[in-house]
Structures are given as structure tokens and as C-alpha cells.
Amino acid sequence: MKRRRPSASVAKANGRSAAAPARAEKLDKLTLGQLDSHLGYFLRRLQIWVFQDFIQTLGTMKLRPAQYSVLLVIEANPGRSQAAIGQTLGIERARLTRLLHELERRKWISRRASGSDARSYCLHLTADGEKALVRIKSLTVQHEARLADHVGAQRHMQLMDLLRDFG
Amino acid sequence: MKRRRPSASVAKANGRSAAAPARAEKLDKLTLGQLDSHLGYFLRRLQIWVFQDFIQTLGTMKLRPAQYSVLLVIEANPGRSQAAIGQTLGIERARLTRLLHELERRKWISRRASGSDARSYCLHLTADGEKALVRIKSLTVQHEARLADHVGAQRHMQLMDLLRDFG
DNA sequence: TATTGTTATACTCTATAACTATA
DNA sequence: TATAGTTATAGAGTATAACAATA
Questions:
Q1: A67 lies in a domain?
Q2: Interface list for A 67-106 with B (CB within 8 A)
Q3: Which residues span the domain enclosing A52?
Q4: How distant, in Å, are the alpha carbons of A108, B17, B75 from that of A121?
Q5: CA–C1' nearest nucleotide, residue A111
């Protein structure tokens, strides 16, 4: 595979003084421009940090944030349907099916046929699932502590208060 | 394709009173359990709202949040390299290559060979790109206003103050 | 007709790795 | 050796649509 060069020809104006050393470019902090007027950008930036730390902290359990959220909601609402879980967490049906199959494969949840609606399943944690969740929670506590440390304990509290009221 | 039934057999215990009507299940709000002790979950929830509104608001321009952020950083830092842009926004090299090729295909940016380093390009907005950015910005202003309305003007301001200091 | 869950497809994003051209 | 950019692949997440079984 040949490296593709763009059609542009001029190789002169590079917008940097010839006196500046080349390696300065790497160290320079670029400005964000109008990006710093967007709350969404800052949310996104912190959220990426959170996911990366979560995935790293839960590395030994190989658990993704979405899987964790499903386990917690099943724990808090045993016996509910996939539709109810998905709606609560905003996870789309098709995606939830695959996610639950993975959790079932690992023997952490069970899916029993519902007595009242033959179309749906009742979701429960298994004994294995509850045991795993103990370990998982001890790791997520560490994660949350690192997050509080990252943003500062006070800011962590303020953000919790500000953000808790949305759904 | 046959619908696959799980091996579980018991169809009795569904954890819901037999007296309760079936459609109540859909209307019930499930509890989040310990999920409500995780700042990351609330960040994620609001961030999903932001992305969805952004993509919808920018629908006529077919512009994704990541593409928008790149346009703004190029505008604020004309002539810089892909490496510098990518590092500023935390976008990985390989991903940025494809993203920039798409922006170049739409004639919104130009990639000129650098005079000082033959390996790198200097990124600039084109005249078309600047024109498009005017329209784009008027849409993102609407988006930001909707976001402020969604979370409340005061909370919007507080969140901006709390989150702006991270990178 | 509508809903529950399944399968499939497509696109975005993230994470790697291998590669070229150059420093 | 290291860096800039390209290409490829794989997995996760998101958004659809079509389908079978049931309500």
C-alpha cells in the first residue's frame, strides 16, 4: 500500500516561524477555539476518562460499563423483563439481547420464562452472579474513588448533585 | 430463523403479583440500584442526550460531534499537523486520518505539505469550509441553547464551571 | 395490530498492528 | 530509532429492519 499524497502542491506556507524548532510543535498546547463554549465537549472528555478508568479497573473481570449497569439493575429489580431493563437504561432491544446472552454464558444471570406473558423472560442474578457482583462492586468502589480524586472530592459531590436529576 | 428458547424450565415464579395487570410492567419505573452512586453513569446519560441532540440538530449538515470538534480546532489553530490536532482532542491517528479524508472530500479542509517536515501536513479550512462553519455554528448555538434548556440555565452554567478545568 | 425477543446489517468509535516515508 | 500518516482488522455501541411467537 502506497501512502497517498493529497493533490495540494504548495509546500511553502506552513504558518510557523522558520526559527521555531520543529519539536516545539509537539509540545505546544493547541487552543480549543469555540469548543470551550460547549458543555457537551467537557462532558464527553470526562466521560471518556471515566470509561477508560472503569474498563481498566474492571480489567480482571472483563466487564464493560454497560454490562455492569445491567447487572445492577437486575439486582435491584429481580424478575423483570428485558424490555423493562432496556427501557430503564436506554439500551436498545437488539443490543440487550446480545449483552444478556453474554452474561448468561458466564452464568451470572438466568432467564426464566414469565408465567404471565409467554413472550418475555424474567431476569435474575444467579448465585454465581451475586458472588461475582461482590468482587465487581469492590472494584467499582475503587474506580469511583479514583474518579473523585481526579475531579476533586468537592467537585465530585457537586457534580453528583447536579446530574442526578436526569433520565 | 427459529427463536431460541433458554434451557430454563420453570415458568411459575415471576416475582410479580398475579393481580397486577400485565401492562403495568411497562409503565413501572425500575430503580437504578447502586448505579445511582456512580457519577460516570450520570455523565454518560447526559452525554448521550447531548450527542443525540447534536446529531439531530446538525442533521442537515450531516456532521458528527467529532468532525465538528476537528473543524473548530483547525479554525483556531490553522496550519497545524494531524498529530497536533489529534493529541489536542484525544483522537487516535488512524481514526483522524479517515475523519480528515472525509472533511477533505467535502472540500472543507485542505492538507498542504509542510515546509519544515515532509512527513506532515498543515491543516487549514478552505473558503468553503469557513462558509459551512458559519451555518454549522448557528446550528450548534441552537443545540447549546436546547442543552441549557434541558438541564436548566443555572445548572448549565454551574456544570460549565465545574467541568471546564479538565483535559 | 402491537409487543417481546432474536437475528442481521451498517455505520461510528476505539484500539491495535503493520506498513511507508521521513526525521 | 523515532515520528507522521496510512491502511487494515476487530470489538463495542448505536440505529435499523425483518422476523417468529405471543398478546
A1: yes
A2: 69, 72-73, 75-81, 83-85, 87-88, 90, 104
A3: 39-166
A4: 15, 16, 53
A5: C5
**3 state SS for B3-53:** CCCCCCCCCCCCCCCCCCCCCHHHHCCCCCHHHHHCHHHHHHHHHHHHHHH
- The candidate with the shortest Cα–Cα distance to A31, out of B72, B166, B90, B161, is B72
CB contact under 8 A, B116 and A5: no
- A32 within some domain: no
Residues of B with Cβ-Cβ distance to A81 under 8 angstroms: 25
Q: How many structural domains compose chain B?
A: 1
Nucleotide with smallest C1' distance to residue B118 CA: C22
Q: What is the CATH number of the domain that holds A86?
A: 1.10.10.10
Per-residue pLDDT of chain A (167 residues; tens, 9 = 90+): 334 444 333 333 333 333 333 333 444 679 999 999 999 999 999 999 999 999 999 989 999 999 999 999 999 999 999 999 999 999 999 999 999 999 999 999 999 999 999 999 999 999 999 999 999 999 999 999 999 999 999 999 999 999 987 65
Amino acid found at A142: Q
pTM: 0.85
Q: Does the residue B30 lie in any domain?
A: no
Q: Which residue of A has its CA nearest to B140?
A: A38
Alpha carbon B76 to its chain centroid, in Å, reads 20
CA of B53 to C1' of C3 (A): 27
Tell me how far CA of residue A138 lies from CA of A51, A106, A125, B150, in angstroms.
17, 19, 18, 34
